[in-house]
Amino acid sequence: MTVRTRIAPSPTGDPHVGTAYIALFNLAFARQHGGQFLLRIEDTDQARSTAESEQSIYDSLRWLGLDWDEGPDVGGDNGPYRQSERRDIYAKHIEILLESGHAFKCYRTAQELDELRAQKQEAGGFSALKFSDLELPEDVVAQRESEGASYVVRMHVPEEGVCTFNDMLRGDIEMDWGMVDCQILMKSDGMPTYHLANVVDDHLMDITHVIRGEEWLSSAPKHQLLYKYFGWDMPVLCHMPLLRNPDKSKLSKRKNPTSILYYKHMGFMPEALLNYLGRMGWSMPDEREQFSRDEMFSHFDISRVSLGGPIFDQEKLSWLNSQWIRDLSESEFVEQFIKWGLNKEALAPAIAHIQPRIERFSDVVPLAGFLLSGMPEVDETDFAHKSIEPTQMVELLQMGLWQLEAIRDWQKPEIQQRLFALAKIEGVKPKDFLYGFFVAIAGTPNSFSVLDSMAIIGPDMSRARVRHSVDVLGGISKKAMKKLDKKYRDVSAQIELQLADIDA
Questions:
Q1: Which residue is catalytic, options 120, 253, 316, 424?
Q2: What is the pLDDT of residues 25-65, one digit of tens each?
Q3: How far is CA 377 from the centre of its chain?
Q4: Whole-prediction pTM value?
Q5: Are the beta carbons of 305 and 241 closer than 8 angstroms?
Q6: Which residue from 1, 183, 334, 432 has the highest number of Cβ atoms inside 10 Å of its Cβ?
C-alpha cells in the first residue's frame, strides 16, 4: 500500500498557520513512508471562495517549503482537485445514497428547524435532529415538491446506540449516536457540504491516512457511516491537537496573528516558522529545538505527537527565528534581507508615492519605513484627535477592522468604498475618520495615502496593525463589544446595500 495524505484548505481568507501546521505533519508522514502528499481546494462555499485566496494558499505553503505531489496547479491522475469542479461526481453519489435509502430529501423550512431544536432543548437530553424529528407527512412533502420548494439532502443516522472508531493517537473512541444529527450532505444550491465531499474525494483520490485537527473528531461518526453506506474502507484517522494561544484558548486572530503571510511580512524566515510548527506537539528524538524540514522528515514518528494543546507563542517563535538569523553568514544575511524587503516586487508599488515626496534618497526610510516594519510603536496619545473622543476612536477602528475583514478582493477602491461608507453612516468626515487608520498603519498621521498604504502592505498586515491599535487604545470591554456588535450589524447591512447599488 502506498501511503497517501492530503491537506484540503478553503480559499476563503488569509492562509492560516493552522493549515501549514496540518500540512507539515501530513507531508512529514507521507515522506516518512515514501508516499505522496496531495493538495485539494475545498471551495464549496462559492460566496466566500476567491481565486486570490487560492493563490495565497499556493504561495504561502511553497514559501514554507511544503510542496505537494498532486493538486490543482500541478495536476495528477486523481483530479479535478477543486471541489467546485466535481459537482457531477457528488451528484452521482447523492443519487446512490437516495436510491439505497441512506439519505433523504428534507423540505423543512428554517423556521421549522428552529422550532424543532427549541423543542429538543426544552425536553432535555441530546439536541441532534433525527429523521423522526425531521420527517414530514407524505402529502406535505408532495405539496412542497410540486411548489418547487427548496430542499437539502440529509443522511440517515442511528437514533440510538454508540459509534466506535479508532484514532492513531487516541485509540478507540466512543460517541453516542444521540449526539449526531442527520447531517446535510447536499445544500439547496446543489453544492455538497464538507462531509460528503470529504468522504467521496478521499476515497476516489486513494487517501490512506486522514491527518487533521481534533475539531473534526465529532465528525468522524458521520464519515464512518458514509463509508459504510458506500461500501468503502475508511482511511486511518489521526486527529492532531489544536494550536492554542498562551492563555490556552484556541488559536484565533483576535489574540494571535494567524495569517502565514503576516509572518512572512514581519520578516520571519520560512525555515524558522516551519521549525516552530514542527515543535507544536512533536519533538525530535534528541529533544533539540532547532531543526530543518528535512531533519524533521528523516526522524519523524507520529507516535511522538503529544495530545496536550501546543502553545503558539510569538515570543518563543521570535527567539527561534533569531537563532536561524544568527546562523546565516554575512553574505547570506544580506541576500535574505534583500529577498525579504528590498526586492523589486515589494518596493515597486510604493515608488509612485515616495518619489514625488523626497529630495534625497536618505528621505526614503523616514517616509516609507513603516512599509517594511512590524507593528508601529504607538501609544494612546498618538491617536488624540480634536473632534473624536478616545471611546469613539476605538469604536471606529473596530468597526473599520470588521469592514476590512469583509473584503474579499483586497484593492484600494473597495477599501475606500467600505471605510468611506462607514464614515458617512457614523457622521464623521472622511479625513477625520481616517486619522486613526493613518496612525494605526503608518504610526503617524503625516504619511502618504493610508488607503494606498493598506493596498501595498496587504490585508494580513493591515488588519493586524488596526487590531494592534485597538489593543493599544485599551480594547473594548465585553459589554461594550456586545453593544457595538449589535450596532455594527445594522451598519454593515447599510454598507452592503450601498456597495450593491455601486455595483449595479
A1: 253
A2: 999 999 999 999 999 999 988 888 888 899 999 999 999 99
A3: 28
A4: 0.91
A5: yes
A6: 183
